[in-house]
């Protein structure tokens, strides 16, 4: 028994390696998310720099310009929040409790994510369509656009519901 115990005690523990990886945040998934957030930030910044001239922001009321900027910033904040959520795993020693807390965070983020995207798109579209002279054809296009946004929200919810379901299944498997 003593040789077995000494062999067990002398075996290096991988927790220091895992802790080092987590402290450096070198996960390939995190790198991909970070790249996506940076690209979105660059795209949103370019859009905000040029919209005033390109899309006649100077001819639109101040509140529409403010709505557009707030909408774009909401989309950027949502992306950054998702990265932060993915970057910092639950720091509990109990795996089951960590998964439960992570599930709560994912549920909240899913609702905020969908709500933010719908509101942001509504704000961006409001900027572009409030100065349009309406015709029957344009009204039909608007209805189609609203249906597309609703469909996107529905499919986003289905994706998040699937992710939440998988985490719940994992929790149920871990629960004795």
Structure description:
- The chain has 176 residues and is an all-alpha fold.
- It has six helices and no strands.
- The protein has helices spanning 2-10, 15-24, 28-54, 62-87, 95-129, 136-174.
Keywords:
176 residues, mainly alpha, 6 helices
The largest pleated sheet is described as: none
Q: Give the averaged pLDDT, no decimals.
A: 82
Rg of Cα set? 23 Å
The termini sit apart by 30 Å
Low-confidence stretches: none
* Helix content bin: over 70%
Oligomer: single chain
Structural class: mainly alpha
**Hey, roughly how much beta strand do the residues contain?**
under 5%
Give the overall shape, derived from the CA principal axes: elongated
Count of helix runs: 6
Order of helices and strands: HHHHHH
Number of strand segments = 0
Summarize the structure.
The chain is mainly α. It is built from six helices and no strands. Helix content is 83%, strand content 0%.
SSE arrangement:
Blueprint: H1 2-10, H2 15-24, H3 28-54, H4 62-87, H5 95-129, H6 136-174
Helix pairs in contact: 3-4, 4-5, 5-6
């Amino acid at each position: 028994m003593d040789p077995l115990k000494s062999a067990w005690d002398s075996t290096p523990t991988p927790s220091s390696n895992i802790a080092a990886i987590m402290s450096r945040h070198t996960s390939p998934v995190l790198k991909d998310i970070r790249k996506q957030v940076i690209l979105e930030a660059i795209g949103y910044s370019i859009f905000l720099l040029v919209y005033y001239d390109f899309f006649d922001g100077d001819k639109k009321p101040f509140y529409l310009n403010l709505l557009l900027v707030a909408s774009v910033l909401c989309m950027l904040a949502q992306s950054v929040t998702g990265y932060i959520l993915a970057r910092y795993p639950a720091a509990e020693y109990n795996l089951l409790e960590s998964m439960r807390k992570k599930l709560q965070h994912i549920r909240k983020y899913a609702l905020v994510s969908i709500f933010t995207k719908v509101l942001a798109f509504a704000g961006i579209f409001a900027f572009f369509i409030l100065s349009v002279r309406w015709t029957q054809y344009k009204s039909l296009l608007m209805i189609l656009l609203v249906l597309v946004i609703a469909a996107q929200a529905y499919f986003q919810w289905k994706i998040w519901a699937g992710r939440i379901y998988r985490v719940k299944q994992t929790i149920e498997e871990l629960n004795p």
